[in-house]
Design a protein that fits this description.
The chain is an alpha+beta fold. Helix content is 20%, strand content 27%.
């Protein structure tokens, strides 16, 4: 996971992005957080860039669980 600026985000919404070139399509993120991630062909994509506050934990968990660092969180 690319965890840039996870601390000190006072009032800012978490943003997520999937690097489709790096993603290996194992669907781990989709299984953990289907509210944010979905499969598009053979790779995962983010349904939305901004992550609702109540899904931040699941989104972080999904990013950390993937076998490669394809998910960037800001």
């Amino acid at each position: 996971m690319h965890a840039e600026n996870l601390t000190g985000r006072k009032g800012k919404k978490m943003k997520v992005k999937v690097d489709e070139e790096t993603c290996v399509g194992d669907e781990t993120c989709v299984q953990i957080c289907p509210e944010i991630f979905e499969m598009k062909g053979d790779v995962a994509v983010a349904r939305t860039e901004e992550v609702p506050k109540d899904l931040e934990g699941k989104c972080k968990e999904a990013a950390e669980a993937g076998p490669v660092e394809a998910i960037a969180i800001e």
